[in-house]
TrEMBL record:
This is SDR family oxidoreductase. The keyword Oxidoreductase applies. SUPFAM superfamilies: NAD(P)-binding Rossmann-fold domains. It comes from Ancylomarina salipaludis. One of its GO terms (molecular function) is oxidoreductase activity. Pfam families: adh_short_C2. Belongs to the short-chain dehydrogenases/reductases (SDR) family. The keyword Oxidoreductase applies. The lineage of its organism: Bacteria, Pseudomonadati, Bacteroidota, Bacteroidia, Marinilabiliales. Keywords: Oxidoreductase.
Amino acid sequence: METRTALITGSAKRIGKELALHLAKQSWNLALHYNTSKAEAMALRDYLKALYPKQVFKVFGCNLSDELACESLIAEVSEEFGQIDLLINNASVYSPGSIKNTSLDLINEQMQINFRAPFILMRDFANICQRGLIVNFLDTRISRFASDYAAYSLSKVALSHLTQMGALEFGPDIRVNGIAPGSTIAPINAEEDYLENRAAKTPMKKPGGMQPILKSLDYILDNHFLTGQILYCDGGEQLI
């Protein structure tokens, strides 16, 4: 079986962890990135090592708001693994604030983590790895103009445009696609019925959970003619 390596940013928790578990099951070697969740990343690495002893799992700490550290991540992972075949830009920060209530610090934080870091990683992936696949995690909010999370939404809109721009520039050796989920995992401290209440407003009327997202990733991985596409995996929430 061909050895394949994926770098997943923000892989210690939530969606990133589920992506790691899913790819490990498909025989991928994994570079597990974390910022502050070192203990969780190490625990995930040890769990995967015990479950799949023939595969390689390594942990990489990097503060994506530190541009110098961010610029060294692809080179560091490449040196350890020899090649990165898949880059998943999953890590993000999600903070509320209307346009009127958004400070420069807030918009700088959201843009740095959600857009500038993926930009750096995509650029370095193209220059160092020169082939493979990039998947950017977006948000169904990119299709709407609600301003309750203004800085966050704008950062994801920028990333969606970069996704298609990268597909145009990096092809044919690198494919670039995006996945735009809706409400998938409830925020910390959210009410028990948070996902059900959000889903009730969508055409599908029910939460999708992780499986549709994992199936979307599989579709991108398996379809070698797919590039520059954004898969809305949101139960039709982008239509509202």
